Automatic annotation (TrEMBL):
Membrane disposition: Peripheral membrane protein
Coiled coil: none
Domain of life: Bacteria
UniProt-listed InterPro entries: AAA+_ATPase (IPR003593), ABC_transporter-like_ATP-bd (IPR003439), ABC_transporter-like_CS (IPR017871), ABC_transpr_PhnC (IPR012693), MetN_ABC_transporter-like (IPR050086), P-loop_NTPase (IPR027417)
UniProt organism field: Pseudohongiella nitratireducens
PROSITE patterns, sorted: ABC_TRANSPORTER_1 (PS00211), ABC_TRANSPORTER_2 (PS50893)
Keyword Cell membrane: yes
Cellular component per GO, a single term: plasma membrane
Name of the protein this chain belongs to: Phosphonates import ATP-binding protein PhnC
Keyword Transferase listed: no
């Protein structure tokens, strides 16, 4: 489904942000991407959706080499990739329904979207998604009136409006309280199973990743240093990824 082959990224200043990264993600598989700040997690996600061009290697989505695509071909390929953002990236003055429908912008055309003339099938699907993420009572509410957890649910529904094959999720719980964080992670994993979606979730909360996903990839200095089951994240493995720390002690606030 998604395959990375020897992906490296060196920036103009000489910094090696990714170093020969290779892995596959199957349809329906949810992978947590962990590692310290500066390990290359965000660069990796940006290389997958081609916001950053890899220096070397291949990025294949359903056998299409994304790093070779340009213009319209790249825009068409990006329809298959749904993005969910840490800061929600909603248009706050618009309603919940309007924000969700904006997930169809790559399909309906500029004037239809400007005039908010979406096909009936899109409106029906948006309504179904809002019901699934628990926001059916809020479709007409302005997005700036929502809580953080509710905004993230809108962002999830918007990404699913693309009917993607792959979700790229950037720190979906960083701004949420512990209860909302668990709810969002549970919802993401359930939706991926229901829709047979592959997902890569960039996440700092190791305990949350261990609780919900079936596979973890650890990056250190741009290289993969761990790829396995969450239960295999021993103290030594976490030290390899993050450096020395007392992993038995609770984190300081």
């Amino acid at each position: 489904m998604l395959e990375l082959k020897g992906v490296s990224k060196r920036y103009a200043g000489g910094e090696l942000a990714l170093n020969n990264v290779s892995f596959n993600v199957a349809a329906g598989e949810v992978v947590a991407l962990i590692g310290p700040s500066g390990a290359g997690k965000s660069t990796l996600i940006r290389c997958i959706n081609q916001l950053v061009q890899p220096t070397d290697g291949q990025v294949l989505l359903n056998d299409s080499r994304l790093e070779l695509l340009k213009g319209r071909q790249l825009r068409m390929a990006r329809r298959q990739i749904g993005m969910i953002f840490q800061n929600y990236a909603l248009v706050e003055r618009l309603s919940v329904m309007e924000n969700v429908l904006s997930g169809r912008l790559a399909y309906v055309g500029f004037w239809q979207s400007l005039l908010r003339r979406y096909p009936a099938a899109d409106i029906k699907y948006a309504t179904q998604l809002l019901d699934r993420v628990g926001l059916s009572e809020m479709l007409d509410k302005r997005s700036d009136a929502l809580s953080g957890g509710q905004k993230q649910r809108v962002g999830i529904a918007r990404a699913l409006m693309q009917r993607p094959a792959l979700l790229l999720v950037d720190e979906p719980t960083a701004s949420l309280d512990p209860k909302s964080s668990r709810q969002i992670m549970r919802l993401l994993c359930e939706l991926c199973r229901e829709q047979n979606l592959a997902a890569i979730i960039n996440i700092h909360d190791v305990a949350l990743a261990q609780q919900f996903v079936s596979r973890v990839i650890g990056l250190q200095q741009g290289a993969v240093v761990f790829d396995g089951k969450p239960e295999a994240l021993s103290e030594q493995v976490l030290t390899d990824i993050y450096g020395l720390e007392d992993w038995q002690e609770p984190a300081d606030d």
